[in-house]
Amino acid sequence: MSHVLSDQDRTAEAERELRAALAAGGLEADAEALLRTALASLLGSEGRYPEAVEEIGRALVADASFAPAAQVRRVNAALLADLGRHREAAEQYVALVVAGRRERSSFALLAESNRLVQLTCLGEHEAVEHGAARLEDESTRAPEPDATWARVSANNSLALSLALRGRHADAGELLHRAQAANLADDAFALILHVNPVRALLGQGRTRRLDGTLRTGPPRHRRRPRRPHGTGRTGAVRPAGRTGAVRPAGRNGAVPAGRPAPFDASPPPPGGPPPPPANPLRRPSRRPCGAPSGGGPARGSR
């Protein structure tokens, strides 16, 4: 019920439902982990990061089985990314990839695609290129819809990396390919529609913008401003209730007063929970995609 209420933007009611379920007590570890993770996701979507961090910390110490623990780790990584802590988020996704492969879960592909987003935000563009090529190859052996989501997300991440290096035409080509392959009309579809617009701006092709904008997805769910100017980047996440994949996204701190370099994004799970370190240490100030020292110029956003 809380998921339905949240999807309808009835977040206050959803929060009450979740807190009431947690207050009832007598919960098994898996149930507690999933409830706290859902609450952390809801709080994060409202921009209430201190509370979200507190809830995910409690979920991390629950002795949950693989699937709930993976969901906890996924949300923890997404919160770290929202706070600009891309290195730590990338490390979380590495653990999720390892755990997913150990369980022979295709979720490893989704976690890897989200790791690429974090590497892009860290300016590790060569690693992103290699990772996207490897992910494309691995996705050919995965079931649907996981294989398609992984490829689309990898293309989006690689396009972000290319745009940040000024290769807007190559980025636009990848994004149009991702648009054509995307399976749903949702927030991720909007990201895939907006990013080609940014690629056109980067190429100075402003005459094509009007038609491109007019043909965009009609829906756009309101999201709060991310801390420190963080934006969305377009990762994919599994839907917690059914195990089906659904796209979402986040990430990418942007320096104040500057246009943000593309929307990239992200959320997946897996693996033993890390120690519940306080994720509210000072967040990273490095803008998404900024190279670690000098490096290529950013692309327009």
Automatic annotation (TrEMBL):
Comp. bias (Basic residues): 217-229
Domain of life where this protein originates: Bacteria
Ranges annotated as biased composition (Pro residues): 264-278
Region called Disordered, residue ranges: 205-301
Sequence ranges of Gly residues compositional bias: 291-301
Listed name of the protein: Tetratricopeptide repeat protein
